[in-house]
Amino acid sequence: MTINGWLQIGFYGLCLLLVAKPLGLYLVRVYDGSMRWLGPVERLIYRVSGIDPAEDQHWTRYAGGMLLFSVVSMLFTYLALRLQHILPLNPQQFPAVADRQAFETAASFTTNTNWQSYSGETTMSYFSQMTQLAFHNFISAAVGVACAVGLVRGIARKSAGRLGNFWADTVRGTLYVFLPVSLIGALLLVQQGVIQNFRPYVEVTTLEGAKQVLAMGPAASQVAIKQFGSNGGGFFNMNSAHPFENPTPWSNFIEMFALLAIASGLIWMFGDMVKKRAHGWAVWAASFIIFAGGVATAYWSEARGNPIHAERGIDVVASEVQPGGNMEGKEVRYGIANSALWATATTAASNGSVNAMHDSFTPLAGLVPIVNMQLGEVVFGGVGAGLYGILMMVLLTVFIAGLMVGRTPEYLGKRIQAREVQMVMLYVLVFPAAILTLTAISSVLAPGLAGRNNAGPHGLSEILYAFTSTAANNGSAFAGITGTTYYYNTLLGLNMLIGRFAMIVPMLAVAGFLAEKKVAPESAGTFPVTTPLFVVLLVSVILIVGALTFFPVLSLGPIVEHLLMGAGRLF
Amino acid sequence: MTATKRPLFDPPIVRRAVRDAFVKLAPRHMVRNPVMFVVLLGSLATTVVLARQALGGGTGVGFTLQLTLWLWFTVLFANFAEAMAEGRGKAQADTLRASRTQTKARRVERPADRESATLVPATELRLGDTVLCLPGDIIPGDGEVIDGVASVDESAITGESAPVIRESGGDRSAVTGGTKVLSDFIVVRISANPGETFLDRMIALVEGASRQKTPNEIALTILLSGLTIVFLFAVVTLQPFAIYSGTSVSVPVLVALLVCLIPTTIGGLLSAIGIAGMDRMIQQNVIAMSGRAVEAAGDVNTLLLDKTGTITLGNRQAVEFMPVKGVTIPELADRAQLASLPDETPEGRSIVVLAKQQFNLRGRPLGDAPGQEHMAFVPFSAATRMSGVDVGAVQLRKGAADAIAKWVRDGNGQVPSEITPIVEGIARVGGTPLVVAERRDGVTRVLGAIYLKDIVKGGMKERFDRLRAMGIRTVMITGDNPLTAASIAQEAGVDDFLAEAKPEDKMALIKREQAGGKLVAMTGDGTNDAPALAQADVGVAMNSGTQAAKEAGNMIDLDSNPTKLIEVVEIGKQLLMTRGSLTTFSIANDVAKYFAIIPAMFMATYPALKALNIMGLHSSESAILASVIFNALIIIALIPLALRGVRYRPAGAASILRRNLWIYGVGGLLIPFVGIKAIDVALVLLRLV
To answer: Is B574's CB within 8 Å of A406's CB?
Structure first.
């Protein structure tokens, strides 16, 4: 570990902190409808699609709209991928995407997962990339934020029972948030050297005299939204480790910043909308504490490197000429600190873009991304999904700990009763049900085992990572799994749909129930939600609930692998 | 009913609870508690494995046997906890039943016709029947006095031996079955069929027969069931992971892990906590009609307290003599003192004290002392609403202005007009005027008035401060004018007051508070309190109150002590705190159990996992057994806490939370490490593993 490395990590944290309020203020204005600078476009969209933006929706209607929209857009994408060979903008003449892969990819992009079992540059036409995948990059992000805003309104409103308008929230999020930030982001990235063109692939002769095909395409525009929208689906297979996607340390920083910036702002927006900014900051602080813990663990473990290397006399100490530690699977231009930071951030959010090979991380550093995802990606989290995820955890915290102050648990004046607890528990149950069951099945069935690249505990980590990443709608891969089989394409695709919709629906139900409630005024007897004690509680509940669920399987995967590595065994 | 103080582990109760613990194994009962039901199923599964192992003569029977026994103990301990909580109520119900003797009733056809009484068994009485009760009679059922006045001994219900007056009309017309008429007679219209009387309901309530899960208990059960399902997933999937890792885990060990992980501590004690909460109310002589009411008491934001009897002493004290024209103050003081000498009521006493303080008038010997005229006491009666003495030919009376005025006019005297402003003046500043009159030589005249002032009870300010610290606002309700109300409110330290309150104002206030999302608690006794009692979230009816009030409230205070509302709130809070604390404790426990069991399961496959065995437990078997034993014993260990409730100190939410988190959160995290290690050592020493 170097001071330089820590400074870079610290600078990153500071930027997240500084962006929270300005971005949050902007988001508040977007979602209360007072942002109007694209008014004509917005109104045109409403008119064409027959939306009444003033319609205040019951949670069932809000959720219904979300489901309908997702199903229809997923179907379109499936069709577009299946018909890719007859659609335009296909200079490389790629054939139609295979059925199972088209299903998985459609599910993947609709659910903001961006799990890719294909290489973009050898599978997807420019048309597929730009009209389908990029479209979902924007829309799935906007849908996620809309759902979170629905929950926040449910918490904030008194005796209303309405959550706002799903369609208007989605349109506004796309128009006022994701389009402008992506435009700015794309321009900054192009300035740093990320490519943006429609040229056919270029064949070049390398210095060694070999022939190499260089993939081309409109990368910058895709990369910007993939980061801001916590999508993570790379334009190229190598994702943000590819020099055309992420050429310089600055582009690396911009992409990492984009990854969590909106999530950070959303937490501030939440605090403002519920008229308790201090509570918003408390949630922010809880997120940051877990995030910092993750980064520190990953960075420490990676910088420490592989003890087996050191034993054999290989120099793993950081010096002027080499970064030391575990550089396997990392880009030299980012080094260990930025790879560890990226890995933590991309799994804290449901992003899943990578700038290093997670599979090559030391076991403990590899544990951090898995745990981050298994905690529900509530540490800042994906756009929208992170906010509603951590708010579910807040409700759980308030319910468990709130009783201890001698009152029926109250959250911001609203009593948490059986109906809410029921829905929160349904939400909590999705992860163990989906991840543990599917990982368990795959760890004993032949087609599941066949996908592994490694045996032993590491193989288990690979399977676990795949199902965790898809259920969490993250999309990052340990990259150890061969996912292009009927078995994995189908199960992973289903898992993504479960991880998205089986969680959003109960979450919106909670929002609807809360919206109907009266608000009791705060008093000395009210459970405090702004104090450091609350932050500690929230962190504890997130960690304990996550740990209790996944500790057994983790102990047979990364934990035992870490211990075995200490004993000199590798997998 | 006398709330006898029983020790926590009263031998007869324990004996009954041990028996009930087995009775409660019935699946019909177990299924009500999902967490313990899972433990029951696990115990059954382990028993089956044990039987097969024993028949097959396999190795490790001793270990499976011990595991099976402890799993069954876990279920039994939880049942025992619930039975213990119920046992206290049941013992009390038995006492009540014993006191309910087979009574005969004098049924009359028409209330006016007392001669027509026929003797019938009390069980034959139906709603609307009219009965006559003479001195010595046990009142055969709940009802309303429609004729007569009587003093009634209600000690069978309230435990209070002093008799109370029951009379037709007004707010003291309700009588309870099982109480005894001491003097005079009353005619009672029966208001409940047999089996539906207050006594019957009380027996059912203390017994817990009609117990329903409360809203918060339901919510908590959902949370606990959810966690149980999470752990089911974690444990069931462990087998495939074990197979993947080239080993397998036996069913008893999987069951052991599951039982250790699911929240059995709180799951096993949850119902006991709820029952014990109602039981603590009964200890306070408050009958809660439902657990829901007890829970609501903890949530109360606003307390409505009647001024008289709650904030101020119901008994006022004399502070000033105010004579009419032609009478001097010492003269009035002298007469007032004389009229009050034999009067044992606090008001009467205070008059004597005031006379002594102001004019050094000493008490005179009562009765027929030599050299003194015969002195006869005329006690206060509900009919005359005045009291006094007859000293020789002189009659002295004191009482309410209108009662005295009537007496004066009956004696052909004139009521001076200036008495009216005096009386009104006293009333205006919140005092109670007591008019004194004398009849001497056939002339009856008014002497003046005594100003009786409200005295704020000692310690009220501190109690209200405590309530404020808990975030509860107190509102004083009074019929006084705003000026008086304000001065008393300030003296007592309440947060707000409602002056010149009519019943409908009270109702409006409750609705207003509730519209703002607040929960309101109040006490009441009169029929005109009934709507407000029904509207309030916690309505404590005084047992001395009318039937209508008792029907409307969701709690009845047998002591008829309005101040008790504060204890009621504290018990409600304590109930919720106990649930929350034990839930936190239960979940925090799991961390240590993982560190005990996971390495135990897989150390054979991956010796490296030994690093997780941070407690240094002896062997896989001892680790698993120790965890299960700890898990079972902790239920027993926490029964006293569940029954008594966690220690409660009035404080703000933040400080209560901090305290409970340290004890039950951090404690819950650390205690099992110590406990499991200790049991592990003991198991090794006893050669059980």
So the answer is: yes
